[in-house]
Each structure stands twice: as structure tokens, then as C-alpha cells.
Structure to design on (406 residues):
């Protein structure tokens, strides 16, 4: 278990805003434009949209020192509220150091204090990066084991735990299309609920959310199709689907334009707003191969409100008032989850960013050591969160604010 507490360069500490009393400057940085050196950078500077701000190529040595300081912290605040959300006792620790391979679909299972997650896509796995097994991490012992469901589940991509069951979506595999299913974590029996849109295959499911009535919100993306994880169908545009949890009747909620890709999805605590991560910047396209990254593609979180019936006052499976809530400061958001208070946690790049749901301001970032570590998805606990991605599994513990909604 590796804890990311690293000493800072004393020469740089005075060049950033001072963190509040009680917050350790060895773990925290406060970045704001009230310092003229950050609002107007002297000399030359440049970075791509895929790189962290602190990875920028800058000529001014004072800014280099600031970036060195930021690169050694676990928490970067852009707004004073971030200190109150995370609190002074939070720690980032790496539970498992795994291959620099995408890890996805984390689900916390409270009955066994364990974390379900998967290794996804190429280059790992069997032929063409296909995976028919999953990981189970015992959070008491930190023991990691491989499991298989019955029948085996190929290329699980998203997971939500609810009422004793794992609810998962998959990309599909060599002999099956993408589907929505439940998995019993006691027996590992898989029950497939839905695998077609009126006899048409889905592209490849990416993630899902469940509302308080048990209805599903599924993102169908180019990601699995673009990596040839299954051979089925001519893909439709990336789409968000609504599935009635009782009847399994389904319909399209939103269709993304060219250059977009439907990825992480989550709901506000009252269920009135749907959030979607658009990751078109990955470059995955509808040609059954992975294209070069597209920096002009989507790196956004969109927010939609639900339409309300004029006669009954009930929420309808229709979205209105699309808003661009946030565009990632670095890279793009893959998995997103919403906390009890409505904060949005977006994983991508070397960070999980915390976003205000009303203004769209990025309040701060939780860092995971850099060096190629790439958070991909997140699951929220009571005062903690777990993150999976390239490089392994991380735990952020002793967070001040209550996070888990269920």
C-alpha cells in the first residue's frame, strides 16, 4: 500500500496561495488567478488538452517551481469550498499497483467490504483484448482475486451496486452483443435483462445509472466497437437510452453529434437532472477501429433536465434544456458519479475533479501520483471513494463530506 505524501520544494511554496490552517502544504496546493504570475504567465508556455496544467512546457523558472510543487501534492484546490468538502484529514493511497491498462466498472459491495472491477480492452486480455473475467478486491485484507460469473460475462464496462445486486453493462464479446445484466455477488450468477433495441444490436455499452424507481440510463458508445471487441451490427451514433426497470421498455433519450462519444452517466440526488460525459476526444469512431485522438472532440459534461407531464406532474423519459456544464481542464472525464450533496466527481487524466453542479466551476482536483497513472472510473463511499484506472486501484479516505447517496 503506497501513500502519496511527498515533501515539497520550499522555494516554490511561497509562490502559491497559502492553504488554510490545519491543511498540510505537503499534501495540498491552492491555485488561483489572484496571483498575477498564474493569471499572466511570463515568457512562453504551451500544453495540449490531454496534459495536466502542471505538465505545461513553460520558460519562466518561477512557474516551473510552482508546477513542481503541484506535481507533488494529492489535492489541488481552485476554489475555497474544496477545502471544506475534502477536509484536512483526507489521504490518497494506492491499494493495488496494476498494469498500465484500462480498469473500469468499480462497484463497492458493502456486505463483504469488497470492490468489484474489471480490466477492459486491449492490449491486455485474450484475443483482441477481450476479457471474460473480473476482479474482486477484499478491502479488509487487500487481497485481489480473479472471478468469473456464471455464465461468463465478456467485457463488462460499467457497474452500479443496488439492493444486493451488481447491475452491469457490457460491450459484448465474440459470440454475444452488448447487454444489461444483474450479477449476484454471493453466487456470481449473471442474469441478462436486455441485449437489443427491437432486434438491433447496441454499439457497445459503456456505463449506466439507476434512479430511485429502478429505471436504467445506459450509454451506448463507440469505445468497444472501435476496439473490435465484438463483430455485431453497423453502429448507430452514440446514444443514451432510458430503460423502464419494471417493463424493460426502452427508448433513446439523447443522441450525440459527430465527434461525440457517450461515456459516464449519473443523476442529480433528486433525479431531476441527467449528467453525461462526452469523450469524443478519445478518437474512437464508427469504423470498427480506434482512430487517432481528436483534440477537437468532446471533453465535456452535459446536463439535461427532465420534461414533466402537464397532466400528471410526473417526470417523463424526455430530456430538455441541454447545458454544457463543464469542459475538463485536462484530458476528458470518463466515469462520473454524483455525491449526496450533488457534487460531480469526474475521473480522467491524472485526477478526479470535483465540479459544482450549478455553476460548473471545477472546485478542485484529487491527484493520483502522475507518472502515467490515469484514473478512469470512481465509486463513492460514505466518507471515501475508490478509483480504478491505468496503474491500479486507489482509495481516498477520511473525506470530510458525506459522499455516498445510497
Amino acid at each position: 500500500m503506497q501513500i502519496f505524501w511527498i515533501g515539497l520544494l520550499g522555494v516554490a511554496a511561497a509562490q502559491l496561495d497559502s492553504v488554510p490552517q490545519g491543511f498540510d502544504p505537503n499534501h495540498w496546493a491552492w491555485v488561483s488567478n489572484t496571483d498575477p504570475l498564474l493569471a499572466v504567465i511570463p515568457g512562453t508556455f504551451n500544453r495540449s488538452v490531454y496534459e495536466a496544467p502542471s505538465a505545461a512546457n513553460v520558460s519562466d523558472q518561477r512557474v516551473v517551481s510552482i508546477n513542481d510543487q503541484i506535481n507533488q501534492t494529492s489535492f489541488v484546490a481552485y476554489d475555497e469550498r474544496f477545502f471544506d468538502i475534502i477536509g484536512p484529514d483526507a489521504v490518497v493511497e494506492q491499494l493495488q499497483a496494476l498494469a498500465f491498462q484500462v480498469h473500469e466498472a468499480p462497484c463497492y459491495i458493502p456486505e463483504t467490504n469488497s470492490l468489484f472491477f474489471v480490466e477492459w480492452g486491449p492490449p491486455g486480455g485474450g484475443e483482441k483484448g477481450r476479457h471474460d473475467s473480473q476482479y474482486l478486491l477484499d478491502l479488509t485484507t487487500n487481497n485481489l482475486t480473479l472471478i468469473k460469473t456464471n455464465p461468463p460475462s465478456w467485457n463488462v464496462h460499467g457497474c452500479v451496486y443496488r439492493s444486493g445486486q451488481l447491475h452491469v453493462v457490457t460491450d459484448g464479446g465474440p459470440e454475444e452483443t452488448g447487454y444489461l445484466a444483474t450479477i449476484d455477488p454471493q453466487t456470481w450468477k449473471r442474469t441478462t435483462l436486455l441485449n437489443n433495441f427491437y432486434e438491433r444490436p447496441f454499439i457497445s455499452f459503456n456505463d449506466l445509472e439507476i434512479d430511485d424507481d429502478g429505471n436504467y440510463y445506459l450509454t451506448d458508445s463507440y469505445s468497444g466497437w472501435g476496439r473490435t471487441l465484438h463483430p455485431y451490427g453497423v453502429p448507430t451514433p452514440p446514444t443514451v437510452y432510458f430503460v423502464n426497470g419494471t417493463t424493460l421498455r426502452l427508448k433513446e433519450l439523447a443522441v450525440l453529434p459527430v465527434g461525440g462519444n457517450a461515456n459516464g452517466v449519473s443523476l442529480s440526488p433528486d433525479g431531476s437532472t441527467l449528467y453525461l460525459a462526452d469523450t469524443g476526444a478519445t478518437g474512437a469512431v464508427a469504423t470498427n477501429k480506434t482512430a487517432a485522438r481528436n483534440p477537437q472532440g468532446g471533453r465535456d459534461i452535459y446536463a439535461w433536465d427532465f420534461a414533466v407531464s402537464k397532466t400528471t406532474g410526473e417526470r417523463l423519459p424526455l430530456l430538455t434544456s441541454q447545458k454544457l456544464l463543464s469542459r475538463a481542464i485536462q484530458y476528458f472525464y470518463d466515469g462520473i458519479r454524483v455525491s449526496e450533496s450533488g457534487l460531480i466527481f469526474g475521473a480522467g487524466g491524472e485526477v478526479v475533479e470535483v465540479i459544482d453542479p450549478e455553476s460548473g466551476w471545477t472546485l478542485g482536483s484529487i491527484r493520483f501520483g502522475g507518472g502515467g497513472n490515469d484514473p478512469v472510473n470512481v465509486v463513492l463511499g460514505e466518507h471515501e471513494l475508490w478509483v480504478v484506472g491505468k496503474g491500479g486501484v486507489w482509495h481516498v479516505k477520511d473525506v470530510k463530506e458525506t459522499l455516498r447517496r445510497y
About this structure: The two ends are 28 Å apart (CA to CA). The chain has a mean pLDDT of 90. Helices lie at 10-13, 36-39, 61-70, 81-86.
